[in-house]
Amino acid sequence: MVEKTEWQRRAKAAGLSQRELARMLGRDSVTMSRHLTGRLAGGVPQHVQAVIVAWELMRPDQRDAWRKAMAAGGEGET
In this prediction, what percent of the chain has a pLDDT beyond 90? Predict the structure, then answer.
């Protein structure tokens, strides 16, 4: 079994799945996996880290609003 990286653990602890993170950032799940495991040059990109940190800081209602905005194609309340 492969040990999870810090960013994988943090995303999961915050309730953010790899699939949802990929969708938010306009990436496919395979690319997101490579980002989170550090298999791409340069480690975990800062924009991926920033989304995870933002998710950690959000209240549940803020996360729901973000999910709704993403489902509406980025349009809607923030």
Answer: 64
